[in-house]
Please model this.
Amino acid sequence: MSPRRKNKKPRAGTRRRAPERGRRRPKKKTCYFCDQNQGYVDYKDVGLLRKFMSDRAKIRSSRVTGNCPQCQRKVAIAIKNAREMALLPYIKR
Model:
């Protein structure tokens, strides 16, 4: 059995912080494709797909873009298809 820590000081960095009161939460971003009632993501629409890529040509996360999980998957697949067709770069130097 492993030894248990009883009545000892908490280790450095493991203390939980109390939630800060009065702090505003940032507004949740909404999915672009769900707002537009657009059921598909076109891989040929390079201008739209660039919105979901970083300056280094990496696919941005849904946390950054605000996409829902289903649309994020469609965007990732569309970007990969556009890269394969040489419409978008794999990397930028």
The CA atoms of residues 5 and 11 lie 10 Å apart. The chain has four helices and no strands. The chain has a mean pLDDT of 85.
